[in-house]
Please model this.
Amino acid sequence: MKTYLVVWFSSEGVRPSEVNRRLLSLGFEPMQGSYDFIYNWNSNVGVEKILEFGDKVYLSLQGTGVMFKLETT
Model:
């Protein structure tokens, strides 16, 4: 399974390089195209694990002015 992440920056928030640093620390890899980052689970996971991971992303980005969207397939 993979989780894809799209981020929207605010000029009132932190620099994109800081957002990148925070997301890399969670295990995301940057990518180009329709999505900005990807997280590879290397196995199938349940909804509960995905929600826990979403909470980690939320906490990591809290206070940055960034909005985000997660999509897991």
